[in-house]
């Protein structure tokens, strides 16, 4: 897994025999921190994600995220540069070294525009959406689902190429539920790992005899598209007000009246946000719908961004 040495007085760390200089903190979540570091060997900047592991189960989950990254070498999925597990007293930290993307997340872009009372153009939305779908297709084709797709888990390169990140919630695409006990287990897992305002309806009240499949991601993708179009997710405000998201997602999505976007884009959004997951399209169908709206050259959407 590589070795890591923290030389705190000099702000230097070593991962897999390469040294990195600590630059600054970038952010933190409930159980993880992200630092900006610079490679001594190449002068490039990286994001170092440090996951706090309190017990063996935490370490297992951190290694699961590493393993999910290792499955992919795709232009729309954030790659893992290196990793290691280090001991800190009675606890451990999993260190994941990732490329640093200066532009930030899709949510940063959406929020910045919204604050200026502006919105993404349809061409730009289609360009970003197409890239997200290519990344999702790679995940789904490998037999997995992302399970926590949201604007803060999509990075944007300077050319607006999206990169899917935070693969820790990924699991097998198809989950067969055959008992009430198993249903409750899946539901509890979703409550912990799938962001509530982007969570598919079938994960709020899991039936005791059903199949959960990768189309949970298609619902979340619809929420991401909605946020690009209207500056916030369709259920963000419901959650912030303390109202029931679980109840709200049982009704058909209401698309705000606007003159910014075509009927075709609104129809694409509606097709993804179907409450009954068996009526939702798979990723290949969504890609075909997007590619019908924009020219495609060498497998990439070509839009004026």
TrEMBL record:
Stretches assigned to coiled coil: none
GO cellular-component term (any): Golgi apparatus
Annotated InterPro entries: Kinase-like_dom_sf (IPR011009), Prot_kinase_dom (IPR000719), Ser/Thr-specific_kinases (IPR052239), Ser/Thr_kinase_AS (IPR008271)
Main subcellular localisation: cytoplasm
PROSITE patterns, A to Z: PROTEIN_KINASE_DOM, PROTEIN_KINASE_ST
Pfam family, one: Pkinase
Entry's localization field: Cytoplasm, Perinuclear region; Membrane
Reactions this protein catalyses: L-seryl-[protein] + ATP = O-phospho-L-seryl-[protein] + ADP + H(+); L-threonyl-[protein] + ATP = O-phospho-L-threonyl-[protein] + ADP + H(+)
Top-rank EC class of the record's enzyme: transferase
Enzyme Commission code: 2.7.10.2, 2.7.11.1
Topology versus the membrane: Lipid-anchor
Keyword Repeat tagged: no
Complex formation: Monomer. Interacts with DRG1 (via its N-terminal); the interaction phosphorylates DRG1.
PANTHER family: SERINE/THREONINE-PROTEIN KINASE 16, SERINE_THREONINE-PROTEIN KINASE 16
Record's protein name: Serine/threonine-protein kinase 16
Organism: Leptobrachium leishanense
């Amino acid at each position: 897994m590589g070795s890591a040495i923290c030389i705190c007085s000099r702000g230097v760390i070593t991962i897999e025999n390469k040294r990195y200089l600590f630059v600054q903190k970038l952010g933190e979540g409930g159980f993880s921190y992200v630092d900006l570091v610079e490679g001594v060997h190449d002068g490039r900047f990286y994001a170092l994600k440090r996951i706090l592991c309190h017990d063996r189960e935490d370490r297992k989950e951190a290694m699961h995220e590493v393993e999910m990254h290792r499955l992919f070498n795709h232009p729309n999925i954030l790659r893992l540069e290196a990793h290691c597990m280090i001991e800190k007293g009675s606890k451990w930290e999993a260190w994941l070294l990732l490329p640093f993307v200066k532009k930030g997340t899709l949510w940063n872009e959406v929020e910045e525009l919204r604050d200026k009372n502006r919105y993404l153009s349809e061409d730009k939305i289609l360009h970003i959406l197409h890239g997200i779908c290519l990344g999702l297709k790679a995940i789904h084709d490998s037999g997995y689902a992302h399970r926590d797709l949201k604007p803060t888990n999509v990075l944007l390169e300077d050319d607006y190429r999206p990169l899917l990140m935070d693969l820790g919630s990924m699991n097998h695409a198809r989950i067969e539920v055959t008992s009430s006990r198993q249903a409750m287990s899946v539901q509890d897992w979703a409550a912990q790992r799938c962001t509530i305002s982007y969570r598919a309806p079938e994960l709020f009240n899991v039936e005791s005899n059903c199949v959960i499949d990768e189309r949970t991601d298609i619902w979340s993708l619809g929420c991401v598209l909605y946020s690009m179009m209207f500056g916030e997710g369709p259920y963000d405000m419901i959650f912030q007000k303390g109202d029931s998201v679980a109840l709200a997602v049982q009704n058909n999505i209401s698309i705000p009246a606007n003159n910014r976007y075509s009927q075709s884009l609104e129809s694409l959004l509606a097709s993804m946000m179907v409450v009954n997951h068996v009526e939702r399209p798979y990723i290949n169908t969504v890609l075909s719908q997007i590619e019908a709206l924009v020219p495609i050259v060498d497998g990439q959407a070509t839009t004026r961004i």
